[in-house]
Amino acid sequence: MYTLGVLNYNSVVYLSHLIIILQHQLKTQYYMKQLIYAVTLFVSFNLFSQSETSLIRETLKNYINGTSYNNIPQINKAFHDSSNLYLDNKDKGLRIVPIATYTSYFKNGTPGTFNGRIGKIISVDQFENIAFAKAEILMPKRKMQFIDMFLLKKLDGQWKIISKSATSTQSNKQGDRILFVVSNAHFYKGTKLRTGNSFAEIVNAYDTFSKAGYTVDFVSPEGGALPLAYINTSSTLEKEYLYNPDFMAALENTFKPEYLEAKNYKAVHYIGGGSAMFNVPFNKAIQTLVMQVYEEHNGIISSVCHGTAGIVNLKTKDGNYLVNGKTINGYPEAYERKESEQFKSFPLLIQKGIEDHGGTFKYAPRNTAHVEIDGRVITGQNYLSSKPVAEAIIKMLEKQ
Fold this sequence. Notes:
CATH architecture of the largest domain: 3-Layer(aba) Sandwich
Shape: elongated
Number of strands: 16
Helix content: 25-40%
CATH topology of the largest domain: Rossmann fold
Oligomer: single chain
């Protein structure tokens, strides 16, 4: 399921508040020492688990990169010497393959040359010195998708794959990737009011891209787990994804921008929700990555609702604002509750920011879908616009 012991911002805030409250209630120095000791153990455990998960992922990356580039030493680095792979025969019977035999399958490939295998870690579940992991391997030329399941164990201080099983199915996935930009902000700045990324906006767009054969990655300023908001379990689609452990693992393990390469993405999509107003619009690493996708790789930039805050400050190489001279959509100030504490905490205003930077801001009546397309910039008004925006991106990519 979800990675054990992920330390997120909420945990730290909760523990900080707990210490402050108990400082007033526990009068003796002894009890305060006991409390701080317990909190220290909790934080240490979470940080340890995060570190172990990172090491496990490095082992899995050795497998993925080694098998994608015919690098036998790198494959061997991922596996224990006595490990076996449990695969299918042509008649779907069991075929047990020792690791030495498996690596021989890559001897005829040129080391360092990409062979068409596209891999992605889906989830990692670790406890003490054992772990279970899942990965997707795409072979677009063969229209195949493989799902690999791994059992790993920490031996002599190193994580090793001790067994792997796999199965395959026909797939329309081509390995083309869309990057969703999300925020780590858990609170409206300077308040105790909680916020999050719009789950509806994530799901509506993700489902559209996934069914069209695209792979979606998530990037956030800090990486790691996300706060989520606007979850409607009466929605069949939202419920489906809420209880999908692979999908939720992706939201728990978002990438930091420095770990990603612009060349791998066809489009960038900014997700809304209150969280989108904070951190993301001012994050230089994300801005650089996004503009590389747009300018160096002919990519598309898109946003929905408050996610449009993320494109307000984007600049091209010549120093002009991306929105200058473009028609942009998003959530307008006219529909905000201006007297609310939430609105007063916003570090920028979307419509004003777009117009100040030379853009034209258009919007439709409240609670209606609306999409603006101006060149390779596609923007939508609200969660109802998430699917239409995704469809517009797909249509544009198909014409490229």
